[in-house]
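Customer escalation, tier 2.

The customer says the design service returned an amino acid string that "doesn't look like it belongs to this structure." They asked us to rerun it and document both sides in this ticket. The original structure tokens are below, unchanged.
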């Protein structure tokens, strides 16, 4: 495999990434989407973008609820898998979230399951937020589902071994320079493999600072997939709902 510049381009596009995380709770994901849609109550004709959609599990469920959805992701392998479920109102494309996908096109943009904070350069985080704002219609809604960095820091499990099918994954976690670093080692195909996951430990104030310059105003904050209010000490998630401010 040819190594690419960014860790997420390498790791997310491998079969082992999907093997390690094959037990994602689809029922929980579906309940979250149902709770989110019930809270937002989008009109039936709404256009929704699932930004960094992976294999499309969230996009597919939103579509099953009767909405038109476009899912985009940088991983060609993930989009190839998701595209098998396309229909008239469900589409998937390979796309870099740092660039606007369709200007002023979407009523709602969702970025779910900690699909942000991967970039080394701070300007790339700003580019993502600008692309979100540029992709939304006036007064459109952005939902960011992120980890609760405060809880992660306090409950970090430094070492773990996970066996999936015939592969044993050795996982080491640490926090370095406000980045949550997960190192993943395993043997497969007669070779030893090493991959990393890096997520900046953004807290609420950090995300507020990223939203403000691109006219995204936070209107609600939740702490789990049941949409209970956010508590920095014990909430599992940091889910932000923001609205694009109209031009002055």
């Amino acid at each position: 495999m040819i190594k690419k510049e960014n860790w997420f381009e390498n790791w997310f596009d491998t079969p082992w990434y999907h093997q390690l995380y094959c037990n994602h709770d689809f029922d929980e994901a579906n309940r979250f989407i149902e709770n989110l849609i019930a809270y937002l109550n989008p009109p039936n004709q709404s256009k929704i973008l699932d930004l960094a959609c992976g294999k499309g599990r969230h996009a597919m469920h939103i579509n099953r609820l009767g909405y038109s959805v476009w899912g985009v992701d940088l991983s060609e392998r993930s989009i190839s898998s998701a595209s098998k479920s396309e229909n008239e109102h469900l589409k998937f494309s390979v796309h870099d979230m740092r660039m606007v996908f369709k200007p002023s096109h979407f009523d709602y943009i969702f970025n779910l399951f900690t699909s942000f904070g991967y970039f080394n350069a701070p300007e790339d985080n700003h580019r993502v937020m600008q692309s979100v704002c540029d992709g939304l219609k006036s007064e459109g809604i952005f939902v960011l589902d992120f980890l609760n960095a405060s809880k992660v820091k306090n409950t970090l499990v430094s070492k773990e071994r996970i066996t999936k099918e015939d592969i044993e994954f050795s996982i080491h976690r640490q926090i370095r320079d406000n980045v949550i670093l997960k190192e993943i080692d395993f043997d497969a195909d007669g070779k030893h493999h090493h991959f990393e996951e890096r997520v900046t430990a953004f807290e609420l104030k950090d995300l507020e600072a990223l939203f403000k310059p691109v006219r995204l105003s936070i209107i609600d904050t939740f702490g789990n997939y049941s949409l209970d209010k956010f508590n920095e000490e014990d909430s599992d998630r940091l889910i932000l709902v923001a609205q694009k401010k109209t031009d002055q």
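Tier 2 assessment: The sequence is consistent with the input. The chain has eight helices and eleven strands. The first helix runs from residue 7 to 11. Sent an explanation to the customer and offered a walkthrough call.
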